[in-house]
Design brief:
This protein is of the alpha/beta class. It folds into two domains: 28-134 and 265-298, Response regulator (Rossmann fold), CATH 3.40.50.2300; 136-262, Response regulator (Rossmann fold, 3-Layer(aba) Sandwich), CATH 3.40.50.2300. It has eleven helices and eleven strands. It has helices spanning 9-22, 28-35, 51-66, 82-90, 105-113, 137-149, 165-180, 195-206, 220-232, 250-255, 264-281, and strands at residues 40-45, 70-75, 95-99, 118-121, 130-134, 155-158, 214-217, 242-244, 259-261, 295-298, 301-303. The termini are far apart. This is LacI family transcriptional regulator. One of its GO terms (molecular function) is transcription cis-regulatory region binding. Keywords: DNA-binding, Repressor, Transcription, Transcription regulation. InterPro entries: HTH_LacI, LacI/GalR-like_sensor, Lambda_DNA-bd_dom_sf, Peripla_BP_I.
Amino acid sequence: MRDPDLVTPETRARVLAAVDELGFTPSRLGRSLAEGQHAANGIVFPDLIGPYYAEVVLGYEEVAADLGRSVLILATHGRRDAAAQVLELANRVDGMVVMGRTVGDDVVERIATGGTPLVLVSRDPVSTVDTIRTDNERSARELAEHLLAHGHRRFAFVGDPDDSPDVAGRYAGFAAGLRAAGVPVPAPLRCAFDIEAGRAAAEALLRRRTRPRAVVCANDEVALGVHTAATDAGLAVPDDLAVTGWDDVMAARFAGLTTVRQPMRELGATAARWLHDRITERGSDRPRPRAAVRSQVLPTQLTVRRSCGTHHPGR
């Protein structure tokens, strides 16, 4: 049934007739046991809270399901033994996706050296492991240039570049845009990636003697928190304070938030396809030579809405 070229047409016809008569359906569990596989993929996230991770998971799971594979998910947030948990998961799956800075490069290299197929998502490349990222620096610089064109000169950046390779790229692009215009680059106001963290960060910003005129946020949830805090303080967005985000989640569209759209589902779907390729190329019956290491940067797009204001003549 799987390799018709290995048998004569007559034998294949008899087997298929028996399959039809008995109503036989191949057992995925039995096949996995025979091949020494688990029929499951693992995916390691920093966290599972928020629309960004939900979209990536949906893209990943949809492709994995079409390929006949179940998915085991591990979130490392708040786990003191994250590295040990990830290593243990690697022994229970046929391949694994590791997202962001969930574990160190040493753990990634240990898993790869052990033979478990790996794909990295939204983190810097590691040795011989496939890597999928989205563009951060180019779009962040474009966002900074757009805000500068509005006449803004006092900025704040809300987010922690040390906590995420994506945010590090966004801050680098934002800073490059300001430097090119001769505008001072603010130090990042570090916070978590949720609405409440954004609200708290905004309250701290608004207590400063010199208030920023534009707040660039690491993601949409932080931006929505900043937007809410500004409104609660009696400020008008964008007349008193411009606010921008990143991701383009559904809530950002309803809030009129200027943001950068990134292909979240495509990120997860691509990771699932690449991991399947790595798993099948080392299949037990007829393993294929290992393909070259792949690295891809998916494009992002500046999406302008009302939260950054409108252009004025001469600006």
